[in-house]
Design brief:
- The chain is 37% helix and 15% strand.
- It has 2 domains: 14-142 and 170-205 and 338-400, Crotonobetainyl-coa:carnitine coa-transferase, domain 1 (Rossmann fold), CATH 3.40.50.10540; 251-322, 2-Layer Sandwich (formyl-coa transferase, domain 3).
- It has 403 residues and is of the alpha/beta class.
- α1 (23-32) packs across α7 (171-192) and α10 (259-268) packs across α13 (306-316).
- It has helices spanning 23-32, 63-67, 81-91, 105-108, 113-119, 144-150, 171-192, 208-212, 215-224, 259-268, 283-288, 290-302, 306-316, 326-329, 333-337, 379-387, 391-399; strands spanning 14-17, 37-42, 56-57, 60-61, 71-75, 96-99, 124-129, 201-205, 241-245, 251-255, 319-322, 341-346, 350-355.
- The strands form 4 sheets. The protein has a 6-stranded parallel beta sheet, with helices on one face. Strands 9-10-11 form a 3-stranded antiparallel beta sheet.
- The chain is elongated and about 85 Å long.
Amino acid sequence: MNENSGRLPLQDIRILDASTMLAAPWASTFLADYGAQVIKIEHPEFGDHARRYGKQKEGIPLLWKTLNRNKKGITLNLSKPQGQELFKKLVAQVDVVVENYRPGTFEKWNLGWDVLSAINPSLIMLRTTGFGQSGPYASRAGFGTVAEGMSGFTSVNGSADGPPTLPGMALADGVSGAFGALSLMIALHERANNPEKKGQCIDISLYEPLMRFLEPHIVAYDQLGIIASRVGNGSLSVAPRNAYQTKEGRWVALSGAAQSITENLFKAIGREDLLTDPRFATNELRLKHVEELDAIIGGWIRERELDEVLEILHGSGAVVGPMYDVSQLDQDPHFHYRESFVTLQDEELGEMRVPNVVAKFSRTPGRVISRGPKHGEHNLEVYRDWLSLSDQELEALKKDRII
């Protein structure tokens, strides 16, 4: 399927990940999936809060295993002067530092951008926080939940007669993490083409990435004064677009985002008359009569079982798919063919199925090599190989709770 020679595209990039929880760690993980050497720093006593996030199996944190996969883990107390000096020595040897503490925290520890960039002028620093490094809200604590609310996302998510609705997943963190990874690659590319090879600092909030995808609603309000409302599984831009229930109680998602696709749908359900019906001839007209249209499509689907619905509609060129829960994802043959999931070998859990790397490169694909590290698992390796510390020095640092 590819010409992979074993080389990973980012294997020469070194990242020092001093972040916690979800958004910023995801950013470095996305690059670790393609070979970046990521050293994950945790507090020697408390560890990362992400170890206590989500479900556990017999006391073993599950999300941690995949959230911080492909990384090496060390412990280091950044609030202590000795820990700060060790951090600076590590910074001198890396391309990237990732952190997501509240603005001012790294400065309080004498580890701000001005200090670190003086140590390593080529350094790129990613700083991910709830509200960014500047502005009146910068010092506020911020999690993805607040970002999802303040970005405007929840105002368009949920049923028309219900409250603004938060997502059932860490959406703001995930989107911010993806933007963080993208921003790091942009900065690395710019540095490679910069004659002085100088790095730069990247400031990402949790709310602005979500705003980027609310563009249709933002420009509609700016130009037309329209405030987007909640329409459940429907759409303010496209009709038909909804979730429809089949005869046996399964659900399908269906979209007519292109005129030709909608025309294929009308033909497939035996309603070619709808092509010339003045209520449904164009998308604009369909939006005005969306309840009538949903009743027609929903009625046709409700009389048939899932397999029949999919066979007929796929055969016609309509755009439709089953709505899965997580138990059904790994059963889909297409997902198997694409290797959308990969099996991790873990000494605590045995085999563990996790999402695979996303983008599939033809020549240098990424891969999932290892699960998230144990607390301080690579202390000896990193501190010996990177900083040439002796066993006696390491023991003293451990005794003083620096590592």
